Amino acid sequence: MKHVQNHWFGLLLLIGIGWMHFRDIPDKLGETAYLGWLYILLMAGCAAAGAWLLSSHWKNGYGLGMLISGGAIIAYTLTRTVGLPNARGDIGNWAEPAGIISLILEAAFVALSVVQLRRPVRAVQSSGIR
């Protein structure tokens, strides 16, 4: 359980990212099936990253979570600018609350990952601020 104490904030962010996308899966599968499946993969990736954060391989968790979060930020930006194949309905829709919350969570996880991955392992294990 020591890893939960060390990486609880990262776990909370991953749970939030997964939850925000989970809520939209039925709509995405109905509208654009491949986006729904990408949401499902995102959730599975968040679960895997979270599991790694609970282990001694926590760096893998931050790496995978950063990849997922960064990819989600890029995909969100594409859907709001040029659109994706068969998904052009959200072009210009920057003010959607769920999208903004997701972006905040994803950006926070990327920032946390950069900080955690730059710290020496001993500093993370002995520090009171995790």
From TrEMBL:
- Transmembrane parts of this sequence: 7-22, 34-54, 61-78, 98-117
Q: Which UniProt keywords apply?
A: Membrane, Transmembrane, Transmembrane helix
Q: How is this protein named in the record?
A: Uncharacterized protein
Q: Which organism is it from?
A: Deinococcus arenicola
